[in-house]
Amino acid sequence: MAVAVVLACLLAVTGGIGVFLRWRASQPYPIPRFDVVDPRRLGAAPDALGRTATLLQFSTETCHRCPAVHRTLAEMARDCDDVVHLDIDVTDRPDIARRFQIAQTPTTLVLDGRGVVRTRFGGAPRRDVVQLEILRLRADSASV
Fold first, then answer.
1. Which domain holds residue 64?
2. Is the pLDDT of residue 134 over 90?
3. Residues 74-81: contacts with CB within 8 Å, 24+ apart?
4. What confidence tens digit (pLDDT) does each residue in 98-130 have?
5. pTM value?
6. What is the pLDDT of residues 48-65, one digit of tens each?
7. What are 117's strand-pairing partners?
8. CB-based burial of residue 71 (10 Å sphere; 0-12 exposed, 13-18 middle, 19+ buried)?
9. How many independent structural domains does the chain possess?
C-alpha cells in the first residue's frame, strides 16, 4: 500500500512539473540582446517584414503543432495590414536553427518593423498573448 502511495505521489509531481514546463514554454519572454533579422538570410524578399510586426515562425516537417500555429499566425497577419507572418521550415536549414537557437518547434519570434527581435515564444503561443505583443509594438512605434 505504501508503495502505491509513493508511486502515485511521484506520478502527480512529475505530471505537475510537466504541465508547468509546458505552460512556461508557451509564455512570451523578451529577448535580452539586440538582434536584427535580415529576411534575405531566411530566403525571403528584402521587404518581407511587416510595418509594425513580423511573426517569424520556425517549424519542422514532423512538428504536429506547427500547422495549427501556422493557421493562427497567418490569420492574424491577414487581419492586420501592418503585420506579416513568415514560416521557416528548419528541417533542411540547420544553419538557421543554430543561428536562432531553435530547440523546439514551433518557435515564434515577434520582430518589430525594423526586424529587431522583441519577443520569443517556445511552443504554441496563445492568440491573445500574440495580439498583446502586436499592440505593444504598435504603441512603441506610435510613441517614437
1. 2-143
2. yes
3. 76/127, 76/130, 76/131, 76/134, 77/50, 80/52, 80/134, 81/51
4. 888 888 999 999 999 989 999 999 999 999 999
5. 0.76
6. 899 999 999 999 999 999
7. 111
8. exposed
9. 1
